[in-house]
Amino acid sequence: MPADDLPFLPFELIEQPPAPPAAHDATARRRLLARRRPPPFLGNHPQAAMRYRPSDDLLLALNMALHTGSPLLLTGEPGTGKTQAADFVSAYFVIPIFKFLVKSTSTAQDLMYEFDAVGYLHWAQSERRSADARLGGARASTKEAVAVRQGFLHKRALWQAYETDGDAVVLIDEIDKASRDFPNDLLHELDQHSFPHPFDHRRWIAPHTGRRPLVIVTSNDERRLPDAFLRRCIFHRIELDEDLVKAAVESMAGADGSGFPHLDADARAAARRRFWQLREIPGLDKKPSTAELLTWLSILSAQRVDAQTLDGCRLADLPALGALIKDAGDLARLR
């Protein structure tokens, strides 16, 4: 039976091409490619949000932040579910979430708005030339210039959340990527939840509803945050433990196992055992996380791997090991 007529999607979407290149059937391979359906929880936080299983301690921290209006600072290893906690809150209440992904060049202003100064300068120069070219032409009035300048002002996560007609979540993701000044520059906004309009400092931007959005800040602990910033936050660190990982795996699998359709409960349990054995290897520079375990389980399901195969091989020979171990030195330690 041709591969594209199989009732199931084979794992080997790419194979060695045939020796005579003319024998390669690209059309059939493209039909297979079109049948791909990655699990919704991979790369789609909103779809996975209601399958997220926060620990009791995380629920406590979330409720503390909601009742006090304080930002919630979530720390932990990459891939432990910090970002997904914000999507969970958004899905739980069915309220919008506004995300700000921090970069090394981010400033506090970027959380509130961005002004396209280059674009505005180009407009101003073009308008000046047009006015000069017109006989008796007048340049744009001050009122018109202000209106045009507004068009180069782009509202970002915090401002967008303030304008929401209801509650909202603001995610400040991976704050430890930014310069040390970034969290210090947010102290007033996170404390008072207001900031001056960029074109009129007599006008202050604040939540329309009078209620603060829930601000969730994540950090991978790459560096310590300033004490003044920490003082304003509710803090919680997401620690990986066996109960948390099991809950995450079984929730994503679903009651009917459809999340990993070709992995039964025994295979999922065996995969979790091998996952913990990998994490216990001394000296690993990059230990696999929950997110990587879920990705690995998806691949094992596509490969139709059983518990006996997982339990019967060395750690270095685990199938699809590249989904868990991401460092060449760590691979060398295994082998």
From TrEMBL:
Family annotation (InterPro entries): AAA+_ATPase (IPR003593), ATPase_AAA_core (IPR003959), P-loop_NTPase (IPR027417)
Superkingdom of origin: Bacteria
Leader peptide range in chain numbering: none
Gene3D superfamilies: P-loop containing nucleotide triphosphate hydrolases
Chain ranges of the AAA+ ATPase domain: 68-244
GO terms, molecular function: ATP binding; ATP hydrolysis activity
Protein name from the UniProt record: ATPase
